[in-house]
Amino acid sequence: MQLPPVSVIASWPTPNYDNPTEVHGSAIIIMTAIFMPLMLAVIGIRIFTRIRILRSFGWDDIFIIAAALPTLGCGIITTTAAITLGWNRHIYDVPIWQLILGLRLTMLLECLFATGCTLTKLSLLFFTRKIMKGSGSPALQWTVVINIWIVAIELVIFILVVVFTCRPVSLYWKLSILPQNCINESAHLLASGAINTATDIIVIVLPIPSVLSLSLPVRQRIVLILLFGAGFGVCIAGGVRAYYTYRLNIAHDKTWEAYYLWISGTVELYVGVIGASVASLRPFLARYIPSIFGNQRERASYAFASTVARRYGFRRSNRGKPKPRKVKEVSEATTITMNCDFDFDLGYLRTQKSEMGPVTTASRDGAAEESNIGIPPAETGAGSAEQ
């Protein structure tokens, strides 16, 4: 790290390492105390929903769990450093050894931040692929795949540039007044911030055409609008972080200006992970808080799905006992949750595939037919009666 000119250092007041006259408040600690438990709770509910309710745990869930790890790391590092390493002080009130250790942690923090952002975007992109199956245009699906590769390659390039900002690498945390063999870190951070915000916008906009093309009630459309609004909140946080990155790069008092950057970056990570998981909470909320998040059709859907699952398990473990009566008819208004977080209407009889067993539905002319959703035919209908 290249120190400010000697004239600037000479203008600084006498260091006060033990009791500095001015420090930042506890904003980082408060933000971490709020967002860290909230993020963990949201991810826990998401995993429960995907495994126990929808039974459709996928790559988007794996990536969001992976994204939570560097996010937790960033929160722990920034909070600990603000308390013990003087990240909430002016640079002249921070001992030299703390500055050196802080620079080492800064390199680690930048890599963790980029990893968390990338894994969150990959989770959203794989979620977009999931809801596009059978509905999105081929061009849009290829756009999603291309963006997956772009986001992944962007992470690799960013980490390589951060690690090799200086040659040798140790110059990054070596304090010197003389020029060092390092790239222009200011230009690098501003460029990466702009690219990161641009990819955020692309990732959020991509699923909109497919989701809006679904047949959804007004309430669900309002929920989706709120979800996308949360996604654009991440973009806003990214823009704020880019602004504080610019301020940091033109300032001589690095530790004082970096405090705002750590806050905005940490909030961006937490909001990104939470926003990417909110859509997956809807089945959980519709089941356990139906008066607020559900409606009659949704309650019938989840009750129907649970009934079919119980019947299948009952039949396998209780063959000697009376069998439940067969469900002969399902009204047209019933909806079935597929391998994503939205419901599709059964306007007329058509074959639907899911992870559940075959069900009998009524078409518009009253004829009963079967929809194959995964349980072997021998377990259904007359085949069950013969066992």
UniProtKB/TrEMBL annotation:
Taxonomic path: Eukaryota, Fungi, Dikarya, Ascomycota, Pezizomycotina
Membrane-topology descriptor: Multi-pass membrane protein
Transmembrane spans: 27-49, 61-87, 107-127, 139-164, 194-216, 223-244, 259-281
Alphabetic keyword roster: Membrane, Transmembrane, Transmembrane helix
Coiled coil regions, renumbered to chain: none
Domain called Rhodopsin: residue spans: 45-287
Cell compartment(s), UniProt: Membrane
Pfam family of the protein (one): Fung_rhodopsin
Region described as Disordered: 355-387
Major subcellular location class: membrane
Family: Belongs to the SAT4 family.
GO cellular component: membrane
Native source species: Arthroderma gypseum (strain ATCC MYA-4604 / CBS 118893) (Microsporum gypseum)
Name of the protein described by the UniProt record: Integral membrane protein
